[in-house]
Design goal:
One of its GO terms (cellular component) is dynein complex. This protein is an all-alpha fold and about 220 residues long. It has 2 domains: about 1-95; about 95-215, Histone Acetyltransferase, Chain A (Up-down Bundle). It is built from 8 helices and no strands. The protein has helices at about 5-95, 95-110, 115-130, 145, 150-160, 165-175, 190-195, 210-215. Helix 2 runs antiparallel to helix 3. The radius of gyration is 48 Å and the shape is rod-shaped. The mean pLDDT is about 85.
Length: about 220
């Protein structure tokens, strides 16, 4: 009589325990599902945060590129003006090429030995002939402007050529003459210039009085 009620109570308790455990397992399953969802959401948040950071870096990089591009375009705007001016200058030089080359050839062939004043007067007469015969030529003729090379002229000046129009024109004549020139050089300027400029080319300097050495060279 005492055991039967206890067994009934045990069975009831076991039933309640099983119900509680079943409910616990259900809650644990729900918790696991929620934790899995939370982990997935955290992973998605981390991925989106990383994507946001990368996008922010790309936005900043694009901003820098845009800023550089604007500076480049601004610089090229100035270059466009310079290129246009250069193209206009070249077109004018090409249009005047025939007359300018005729005057240049006349200077090189006939005027090398004369003074600056006399050379200028004769050059102006050459220009006048071109003008009167309808041959296109530059309004203000310059031998250096027609045949001179800026880089080469700069090298001449470094080598000791005097920095004046007459001397530079003399250098242009020497560089473009078909035969070797005889230089009238009372101040020894051409002598120093040639020696300095041609030193790297192993220039050999001799005197007419050296006889056999002169013939050998």
């Amino acid at each position: 009589k005492v055991v039967a009620p206890k067994k009934a109570m045990l069975a009831e308790a076991e039933g309640e325990y099983e119900d509680v455990m079943k409910s616990l397992r259900g809650k644990q399953a729900e918790l696991k599902e929620l934790m899995d969802k939370l982990a997935a959401m955290e992973a998605e948040l981390a991925a989106n945060t990383d994507k946001k950071n990368k996008l922010q870096e790309e936005v900043e990089l694009c901003g820098l590129k845009l800023e550089r591009a604007e500076k480049l375009i601004g610089g090229l705007g100035g270059e466009k003006t310079r290129w246009t001016e250069t193209a206009d200058t070249l077109r004018a030089a090409y249009a005047n090429l025939t007359g300018d080359m005729l005057v240049s050839a006349g200077m090189i062939a006939y005027l090398g030995a004369f003074t600056a004043d006399f050379r200028d007067r004769i050059t102006e007469s050459f220009v006048a002939v071109c003008r009167n015969t309808g041959v296109a030529h530059s309004a203000k003729f310059s031998l250096n402007g027609v045949l001179g090379e800026p880089v080469k002229v700069r090298e001449w000046l470094i080598a000791g050529l005097p920095n004046d129009t007459f001397s530079i024109d003399n250098g242009v004549m020497v560089a473009n003459a078909r035969r070797w020139p005889l230089m009238i050089d009372p101040q020894n300027q051409a002598n120093k210039w040639i020696k300095n400029f041609e030193r790297s080319a192993n220039l050999q300097v001799i005197k007419l009085s050296e006889g056999g050495e002169y013939l050998r060279v």
